[in-house]
Amino acid sequence: MVPSAIHNLSLSITEESVEQSLYQKVGGVCMAIAILALMAALAGAGKPYPALFLSIIIGMFALGAISYAIPYYQGHAGIRNNGIMFKNMTNRGTIAWILGIALTGFYIIIYWFPWMFEGLIRIFDPLSKLLTNQPANQWFMYGAFYTLAVLTMGIRFIGRHRHNRYHVIRTCSVMFFQLGFSFLIPMFLKKLNEPEFYFSYFWPLKYSYLFPSDVSSLMSSGHLGVFMVFWGAMMTFIATPILTYKYGKRWYCSWVCGCGGLAETAGDPYRHLSDKSLKAWKIERWMVHSVLVFITITTILLWLNSYYKGGILGSVSGSFAQWYGFFIGALFSGVIGVGFYPIMGSRVWCRFGCPMAAVLGLCQRFKSKFRITTNGGQCISCGNCSTFCEMGIDVRSYAQKGQNIVRASCVGCGICASVCPRGVLKLENGKEEGRINNNPIIIGNNNISVQL
Amino acid sequence: MPQHIVIIGNGIAGITCARNVRKNSNDNITVISSETEHFYSRTALMYIFMGHMKYEHTKPYEDWFWHKNKIKLVKNHVASIDKKGKKISLQTGDFINYDKLVIATGSVSNKPNFPGIEIKGVQSLYGIPDVELMNENSKGIKRAVIIGGGLIGIEMAEMLLSRNIHITFLVRENLYWDNVLPKEEASLISNHIREHHVDLRNATEVKEIRGADNGKVSSLITTKGEEIICEFVGVTVGVSPNISLLKNTDIETDRGVLVNEYFETNIPDVYAIGDCVQHRNPPAGRKAIEQVWYTGRIHGETVAPTLCGKRTAYNPAPWFNSAKFFDIEYQTYGTINPQSQEHETSFYWAHNKGRICFRAVYNKENETIIGFNVLGMRLRHEVCDKWLQEKRKIDDVMTNLKQLNFDPEFFDKHEEDIISLYNQQTGKNINRKKKKILSFFTW
Questions:
Q1: Range name among A14-23, A93-102, B27-36 with the lowest pLDDT average
Q2: ipTM, two decimals
Q3: Contact indicator for A13, B135 with CB cutoff of 8 Å
Q4: What is the pLDDT of residues B336-351, one digit of tens each?
């Protein structure tokens, strides 16, 4: 066949390839009921029957999401990314934009106009009283929805990757840490009149845990408070470097962290939307390390200020931290980080903003046993690995050179290795020696060594 | 004075050549292709059709890469080569002068000559235009037939299945791909194909394809006289070197462009690499025409220093290849023949669930390793390559089997089963190198 001289490369394949199954239709109906109940509750209708409304909303959301996931458990296990690039929902179509704006709006309201959710928050009272002995506030509601999303979408993710034990185990792990460490335990601590402490978040992600104000209030709250301060400092300064040395950043980012947990589960349908360009990588390095520098300086200043009894910053120190909280904590990690999932992919916050990721990344890049090994010359440059990397790493650019992938940003989710059709990639912890093979000889050619 | 190196073809061979010339020199490089403006990965075509990726995801380099590396890309079709004037003429009437010319035109799909091959809805799969055509031809259809049991055939099956199209898969051989795979592997894959509800028919050939009044394909008649109703026929009966451009030149061709071990053709300063090549003296144990991604890449790597003045012979390491058949990955290293040769012993282990197998072929006399085949299991290329080149003994291979493994973490390990079967069959008593106890907790 002689190819025609000029070819249009649009490949406008638009039809949805797979018809929605019965389960997915049922799922859609459940979701619709949940949304209706949610709107009614917003209008205040839930006040007399909070438990009923809560059960309907949580139950229908859960049922809907799980029914949607059922098809992934049917038939043969394997990589099923069919139609991701055609679907409106996963290809930045209208539905994706609607969802993105709805999520963004949700975050804006919850941070700055929580009174708008008053009716909805009230139906969480029964659950909140059960767990914390206190009426619900917007953060309780947020935590409940967040946990629900991680659990239900985690079930979906496990179905998609049930043939791969690595994914099954780490997804169970993020579901466990979200439910226990980021929801039930802190709520239960509240019930016991202890400080609401998140054992799975550490400085610099949970920056205030090493701020003088938090430390002093924890220290003065009793033995448990003292342990919490010890725990936080120990995790930041001792456990983080050791674990990252042994297993890479993944021990935290794709096994423990709640932000990572949401990205791995609820964010999974959007992982391919991350920007893979060299330019994005440059921006990422500047941004994420700037955030780390900023929070480190802030913390040091706050301690100096506290040491000199307010002599350095006076009242400025407090507003310094407040501004950080506004821009980084709220605007970046919440509004952009999650709100923009359907547009910019699931790891925007982790990649561009998270100071914890920056610390872990520096460790992983310069002192760790973790790497993604490239299997000799087997790469066919197809691009599945790069496409489905949520951190926007151009995995292929390493794999096709026969080079191992050692990157600060890699969270070790292992999807690149799963979608590779030729078995080229393997996440492993090995000897530090030879981890970064900068001048590899692509195996298969005995006369040539490839210069980079 | 930098020379002008012109490469016809922007596939893996041509582009690897261009990149490696750039690493070695400041020569002017021009790459001409009529298919696409930029290099894309042909192996990813199926994923574009299935919606795993878009065309832009299949481009291994960002578009700025070519300008930055001063590799000039020309999207045009070469009409003819004037070897005396050292210039090529393009379809648009322009000329390009060259100092050295590299032909990397790839291959074309074979076209069998049974009646009906020209009917609309009958097509093969090789490049972007084929995917576009397939998209059009498969719109709204229910049934398709694929002819030819090779790697492209099974890819096409997977592509069409992703759009819920029923597939009848006609294979000339007795089992799928059993002209390459040993019987056990071929039947394992044949079973897997059927698990995906593909109607796989072995030892079946085509008599003719019939069209309906609307000009589209309506059915296919097998040599057994059976009529299969279908709206699409995929013809995937292999590829041949694309040498139509050289028909009226003095460049010697047979089935492919004839080259020596330096990829030189019979005409000075004209080279050929990749799928379109036929080796005059293939390296020991290798075929004269080898049309896979990896050989294309290795050709490109090897010819580049020659073009830059450092004449380098083709010296490929042990053969390797890989594929994925629906959900089962395949890797091969060294030489595995479909039937064991006289001097070979073939050891085969299969997992009881029928999705995983391991084969090691070794020399009967001196027990050195000759090749590995695996399905549903990943092996470490570096180790396979080393052991094959060192001609390791099979007992040594078995003892250190763990080093071969490249499966993801937490996957079931099969070394123990494999070794115990080996011991059972050979009457030997090989012990697997044991993992350090508590290695999980050590540094």
A1: A14-23
A2: 0.95
A3: yes
A4: 999 999 999 999 999 9
Tally the residues of chain A: 452
Give A332's pLDDT tier (boundaries 50, 70, 90): confident
What is the residue-wise DSSP string for B253-309? BSSSEEE-TT-B-SSTTEEE-GGGEEESSPPTT--S---SHHHHHHHHHHHHHHHTT
Secondary structure class of B213 (helix, strand, coil): coil
B213: amino acid identity, one letter: D
Residue in chain A nearest B293 by alpha carbon: A380
Yes or no, beta carbons of B408 and A447 under 8 Å apart: no
User: A274: distance to nearest CA of chain B, Å?
Assistant: 12
A210: distance to nearest CA of chain B, Å?
30
* Substitution target from B21, B49, B53, B154 for chain A, most A beta carbons within 10 A: B53
Q: Do A2 and B244 touch (CB under 8 A)?
A: yes
User: Can you give the length of chain B in residues?
Assistant: 443
Same domain, yes or no, for A384 and A277? Answer: no
CB nearest A166 (choices: B50, B302, B409): B409
* Measured distance CA(B254)–CA(A160) in Å, rounded: 49
Give the closest-approach CA distance of A76 to chain B in angstroms: 8
Asked whether residue A421 is assigned to any structural domain, the reply reads: yes
In this structure, the answer to whether residues A256 and A298 fall within a common structural domain is yes
H-helix segments, A74-133: 94-112, 118-122, 125-132
Mean pLDDT of B152-165: 96
Largest CA distance in chain A: 82
pLDDT of residue A153: 97
Chain B: residue whose CA lies nearest to A86: B51
Q: Report the Cα A210 to chain-centroid distance in Å.
A: 23
The verdict on a CB contact (< 8 Å) between B316 and A2 is: no
Of A341, A368, A395, at which residue does a domain stop? A368
Structure tokens at B181: 């795979």
3-state secondary structure (DSSP) of residue A295: helix
Nearest CA in chain A to B304: A448
Instruction: Show the domains of chain B with their CATH numbers.
Output: 4-108+240-307 (3.50.50.60), 122-237 (3.50.50.60), 320-426 (3.30.390.30)
Domain boundary among A349, A368, A387: A368
Check A426 against B410: CB less than 8 A apart. Answer: no
Contact B382 A386 (CB under 8 A): no
pLDDT digits (tens, 9 = 90+) for B52-89: 999 999 999 999 999 999 999 999 999 999 988 899 99
Residues of A in contact with B138 (CB under 8 A): none
Amino acid at A229: V
Domain that holds residue A414: 370-450
Distance from CA of A424 to the nearest CA of B (A): 8
The Cα–Cα gap between B162 and B182 comes to 29
Q: Are residues A251 and A354 in the same domain?
A: yes
| CB atoms near residue A218 (< 10 Å) | 22
Shortest Cα distance from B58 to chain A (angstroms)?
Answer: 5
Question: Is residue A340 in a domain?
Answer: yes
Token readout for A109 is 């309201």
Mutation to test the B interface, candidates A427, A445, A451, most B Cβ within 10 Å? A445
**Surface-to-core class of residue A297, CB atoms within 10 Å of its CB (0-12 exposed, 13-18 middle, 19+ buried):** exposed
> What is the rounded distance in angstroms from the CA atom of residue A452 to the CA atom of residue B17?
14
Residue A287, in any domain of the structure: yes
As beta bridge partners, residue B120 has: B216
- Picking from A4, A87, A91, A13, the residue whose alpha carbon sits closest to that of residue B137 is A13
Same-domain status, A303 and A224: yes
* Residue A374: both structure tokens together: 């490239």
Residue A448 — very low, low, confident or very high, per pLDDT cuts 50/70/90?
A: low
